[in-house]
Every structure is written in C-alpha cells, then in structure tokens.
Amino acid sequence: MRSLEQVLTDGIRDIPDYPQAGVVFKDITPLLADHTGFTQVVEALAAAGKDDDGAPVVDKVVGIEARGFILAAPVALALGAGFVPVRKKGKLPAATYEESYALEYGEATIEVHQDAFAPGDRVLVIDDVLATGGTVEACLRLIRRCGAEVLGTTVLLELSFLPGRERLEGETVSSLVTV
After folding, report:
1. How far apart are CA 122 and CA 148, in angstroms?
2. Which residue in the list 5, 13, 87, 104 is annotated as catalytic?
3. Which of 59, 68, 105, 123 is the most exposed place for a label (fewest CB within 10 A)?
4. C-beta of residue 83 within 8 angstroms of C-beta of residue 123
5. pLDDT in tens, the chain (179 residues)
C-alpha cells in the first residue's frame, strides 16, 4: 500500500494559470478517481473526528461548498455522523443563517440551514484547501451561531504562503499536506 504522502503526491496535480494567469490550481480529480487513494484520504480526514481510542466524537461533519462536499460526505459516513452543507448564498431552500466575509476583491456570503445542528452538536469541518482562512472563519461563526460546538477543521491541502492558519489562531486546524 502506498503511503498517504505518496497518495497525495500522485493525486494532486498542479494546473498553471487556472483560473487566471499567475495562479497554480491544485486539481484533486486524479485523487478522487483513485478508489484506494481516496479511501486513504477519507480515513485520514476522519481521524480528526475520533478520540485516542479511535471512537468517533462528532455528531455532524460540515462540508464547505463545493469541493469540501466531496470530501466531507464520505468522512461523515466513516464517522457515523450527519453531513451538513455550508453553501454560497441563495443555494439552500429552507430558513438560513448567513455570514459574509472579505475576499481579495469584494465580499462573499455563505449560509447554513438554521436547523442544521442541535444545540451542543459536536462538529468537524472539512474542506479541500485552507488558503486565506476567510471562508473557514465565516463557517465557524455560522456553526457557533447555531449553538453547536466546533471540534476542529481539517483540510486536504494547506497553502503555507497564505495567512489561513494565522487567521484561525486559537482554532484546532489540521491538514494532510502543506505546500
């Protein structure tokens, strides 16, 4: 069996100048197409939602739109937990809470259903990439606004040259790979 490091190296490819010149996009589609590798990644992400004895300690797993959905849903299944999508504004059909946050050029808003969590639910947040941390920070505010407890955030890939980890200082944040 390949190591997790090898799975990630083999499964994440760089696409230069996408979606715009100067950006190197981290494409995870090769990883998703590799059943064995994808399974290893899901198990590694799910480890953040277990105690030292390997027992699940979360009630819900949050996936942040859009690639976070792909990772968080199987993690929720692996943990025997519910899955909660956090979406861009206007995409959820029932009553929502929303949080806005600054982007490099402008602002964005994410939402979650008001009834997505029971008070005291223990929540693990899963996303694909931690970059500036703005989306994750807004997501954590939403979860807490619903009365749930954030146990931590785990991402597939952390971009160390951006201030995401610093922005989330005081939060439990882990990543499978840092570039």
Report:
1. 6
2. 104
3. 105
4. no
5. 899 999 999 999 999 999 889 889 999 999 999 999 999 999 999 999 999 999 999 999 999 999 999 999 999 999 999 999 999 999 999 999 999 998 767 799 999 999 999 999 999 999 999 999 999 999 999 999 999 999 999 999 999 999 999 999 999 999 999 99
